[in-house]
Amino acid sequence: MKRYLPNLLRLAALIILIAFLVQPMLFEPLLKPLVQANAPAVYNQGSLLSLTLSHLATVFTATLAATIVAVGLAILVTRPIGAEFLPLSRSLVNIGQTFPPVAVLALAVPAVGFGEKPTLIALFLYGLLPIFENAMTGLSTLPPAIVEAARGTGMTAWQRLTKVEIPLALPVILAGIRLSVTISLATATIGSTVAAKTLGEVIIAGLQSNNLAFVLQGGVVVAVLAVLIYDAFSAVERVLSRRAGRV
Amino acid sequence: MRLKIDKLGVVIAALLAYGAFLAPFAQFRANRIVPGEARSILEALPAGLGAALLAFVMISIILIVLKTPTIVRLVLGLVALLVLAVLIGLSAGHLTPPENTYARVSPASGFWLLSFAFALVTADALARLKLSPFARVALLAAVAGAIAALLMSGAWDGLSILKEYGSRAETFWLEASRHVVLALGSLAAATLVGLPLGILCHRVEALRAGVLNVLNIIQTIPSIALFGLLIAPLGWIALHVPGAQAHGIRGIGAAPAFVALFLYSLLPVVANTVVGLAGVPRDANDAARGIGMTDRQRLFGVELPLAFPVILTGIRIVLVQNIGLATIAALIGGGGFGVFVFQGIGQTAMDLVLLGAVPTVALAFAAAIVLDAATELSSNKPGRAA
Amino acid sequence: MIEIDSITKRYGDTTVVDNVSMTIAPRTITVIVGTSGSGKTTLMRMINRLVEPTSGKILIDGEPNSAIPGYELRRRIGYAIQGHGLFPHRTVGENIATVPTLLGWEKSRIDAKVKELLTLFQLDPAAFGPRYPHELSGGQQQRVGVARALAAEPNILLMDEPFGALDPVIRAKAQEDLLAIQKHFGTTIVLVTHDMEEAFHLADKIAVMDKGRIVQYAAPEEMLVNPATDFVETLIGAGERPFRLLSIGSVGEATEAGEAEGEAIAAATSQRDALSALLWAGRDALPVVGADGTRLGRVTLAGLARRAARPQ
Ligand SMILES: Nc1ncnc2c1ncn2[C@@H]1O[C@H](COP(=O)(O)OP(=O)(O)OP(=O)(O)O)[C@@H](O)[C@H]1O
Ligand SMILES: [Mg+2]
């Protein structure tokens, strides 16, 4: 029983989240006490569902691009041919992480204007770092005996990469993607200050009209999404690393 | 001697060539918000200087593409950055018509690319040299000194970002101090609370998972939402707790921002304290018990000193994160550099955005370097296994 | 046949393998011994070009091994690595199937091969095929490692301390398996070991390496009688010589006609173990049985003593 409890809670959270996004009015009585008598308790300037979907789409697009680029770069710097780039890429990762997301967002605006684009760029750049760092660690800390065995059985460089190195590094790479997605889900809300369609709109509308219910629903939807996605990634990682005998 | 090609150098050289010959060096605008016009290096700098800069870039490209000694690359990178910094100031004076106070000159993509490329050269050289912590902090201080000198000398006064600064010098320093107080104050509070909480979680296993889970969930709440959610309870406190208002507690403003940053800071502090204490070798603990130390003596004499580098890493994460997050405080009237960022976004005045963003990045960057150095020093103390 | 012709490997200024020449006859077991760091692994890895030599050449069946791409060469040469190196993300069956898959064998042929090898190593294909390596004991992993090296029926098998991590019982078993397999497939085996007992038991020829050079390359008996240098002599251990001599042969070769009382000894047992059994049983003779249990004759203390004496 105790083992199933967390999963039951997650399922319940998912069901409530979907119910809220599809039929937000059902929850009005819960939110009513948070607002002044005649103010709306449920976000009414757009559809919560479509904001959530476009929030997720933004995060997904940015993370996908970041994953492709970061894993590609990590593969490059862990090959003999790209070894010269390794010290610099390590320090770039360190430096990059000191850039606050708001600053990245704000600095992207002059380059591409308002809307989705600066948000995508900020999420992309900010998402690169954890994925790159993890992919680099994963690919450069494989047990030498296994890499050696792959060479010994006559795999080409490409076969070694695709059949041995990447599958073995996958749990670590996934952990990087998980970190990146969680950060991006929260950071995307700030994108609404530069007119991106994300759940940040709900929160900012709440801040502007002093409507606590708006702030709460925007924030909680993002948080629940983040927790659920985080857990889903963790579960996949566990399966993969148990499979790889790295428990 | 055979000449060898540096692969990284080739990439950087491509950036340099593009930045110098194809991208605009500076941007000229008739006033603060109209779109800018691009100016190449030759147009943006007084006659001889433009050509000299191009020549300098070409020589640099040769030096960078070949495998030159690391120390040469470091000096080249630093000198080039200084040259660019001085020249962009000169170009402002050159491009602004005399007596015109509306015209704006700002660095354009070419300048940023050149700076980025030379910064890469510098960063690569530094990574290869593996400087000692003291040397890194000294270099940081030297760079900060150089920037301060450039600012004081008025060499950059013609640039648009400093014109923005000029018209808000007083607010700038006020917001700067608020920003620092928010970031450092919440860090101090989180350390004061998080350290004992971490020790408690280490000792009482039943607490550990619960506390860490709650703190983890707090991290997933988007910052703007958490800031907003704290408005209500703090507003209530301000109204109902006597004396609260006198201490600056109000529903909007710095108080909810402070509390939010504090909450975000707890996880790294508590988690790293727990990890650090768990990593204390069993032998050390056994030995401490064996020679008759009390629990308290063991904590302060053995466990905390051994866990210190890990705890410091947590504090570094918090500080860098807080300096960034403090910008969001501006959305709820909490002040800080975010004020300029969001005002700038609102007015589509990018110079103003930069006035807020650049010091934030600089501050976070400096904090990371200093705390990294401190962490390295504390984990390299003699008699300690790495 | 492997012909190694004045091969040298240098890393910077240090010469790790120094001008080594030797010829390895087909269908034999050659064992390389020597102190740690003497260049055994490096020499062996130059045969399948995991290490490229600084100078010299290696011919395999008359062809230079540099004539084809390294990965193709390695698919034709089995390699069992120090500490097995199984792929942790693939099942035992998939691990064994690695090289046949790379070579593009048909699925049915691969499945049959995997089954054959698992059975040969006394691992039930149905039970072990679908398991992951971390679900196996160290000894089982080791056997799978050797099975993987054998999967594509290579003519040549390179083994780097293959039994290093095994306990004595499993180790003896694995050695018997190896001898059986070598007979079965007629494979040419080059094996590195630190265990002199193992070397004398398995080898048709032994190569002793010291500081990158081969100091003696000879049949075990020859090496016992005429150690080339003091180093070889210490390596063999002067006091061990008669016993080493006995380890070389099996009881089958020492069987005499006649009857004996007591617990029977298998013909495949080494003469050294037979001597132990005789001494322990306190008898002058013990019966010898074949693999199928039929009585072949007897082995005697006196007979073994004659064989342990210095050959003339
Ligand atoms: N890639 C390499 N670069 C530099 N030196 C190497 C390299 N590979 C091996 N060596 C050196 O070459 C020498 C021989 O190594 P090798 O692995 O062949 O020894 P070995 O006889 O197999 O030793 P062991 O019995 O310990 O396995 C050692 O001194 C080793 O340090
Ligand atoms: Mg070796």
From TrEMBL, chain A:
Subcellular localization, as worded in the UniProt entry: Cell membrane
Alphabetized UniProt keyword annotations: Membrane, Transmembrane, Transmembrane helix, Transport
Family: Belongs to the binding-protein-dependent transport system permease family.
ABC transmembrane type-1 domain boundaries: 52-233
GO biological process: glycine betaine transport; transmembrane transport
Superkingdom of this protein's organism: Bacteria
InterPro entries: ABC_transp_perm/SBD, MetI-like, MetI-like_sf
Major localisation: membrane
Protein name per the record: ABC transporter permease subunit
Taxon lineage: Bacteria, Pseudomonadati, Pseudomonadota, Alphaproteobacteria, Hyphomicrobiales
Transmembrane spans: 51-77, 98-115, 121-147, 168-192, 212-233
Organism in which the protein naturally occurs: Shinella kummerowiae
Membrane-protein topology: Multi-pass membrane protein
GO CC field: plasma membrane
Protein's UniProt keywords contain Coiled coil: no
Keyword Transport among UniProt keywords: yes
Automatic annotation (TrEMBL), chain B:
Cellular component per GO, a single term: plasma membrane
Main location per the UniProt record: membrane
CDD domains, per the entry: TM_PBP2
Superkingdom in the source lineage: Bacteria
PROSITE patterns per record: ABC_TM1
Protein name per the record: ABC transporter permease subunit
Entry's transmembrane regions: 46-66, 71-90, 110-127, 134-156, 176-200, 212-237, 257-278, 299-319, 325-345, 352-371
Keyword terms: Membrane, Transmembrane, Transmembrane helix, Transport
Membrane-protein topology: Multi-pass membrane protein
Protein's cellular compartments: Cell membrane
GO biological process: glycine betaine transport; transmembrane transport
Residues in ABC transmembrane type-1 domain copies: 176-371
Record-stated family: Belongs to the binding-protein-dependent transport system permease family.
Automatic annotation (TrEMBL), chain C:
Keyword field: ATP-binding, Nucleotide-binding, Transport
A molecular-function term among this protein's GO annotations: ATP hydrolysis activity
Record flagged with keyword GTP-binding: no
SUPFAM superfamilies assigned: P-loop containing nucleoside triphosphate hydrolases (SSF52540)
Classification via Pfam families: ABC_tran
GO biological process, alphabetically ordered: quaternary ammonium group transport
Domain of life: Bacteria
Entry's family note: Belongs to the ABC transporter superfamily.
Protein name (Swiss-Prot/TrEMBL): ATP-binding cassette domain-containing protein
Species the sequence originates in: Shinella kummerowiae
Organism ancestry: Bacteria, Pseudomonadati, Pseudomonadota, Alphaproteobacteria, Hyphomicrobiales
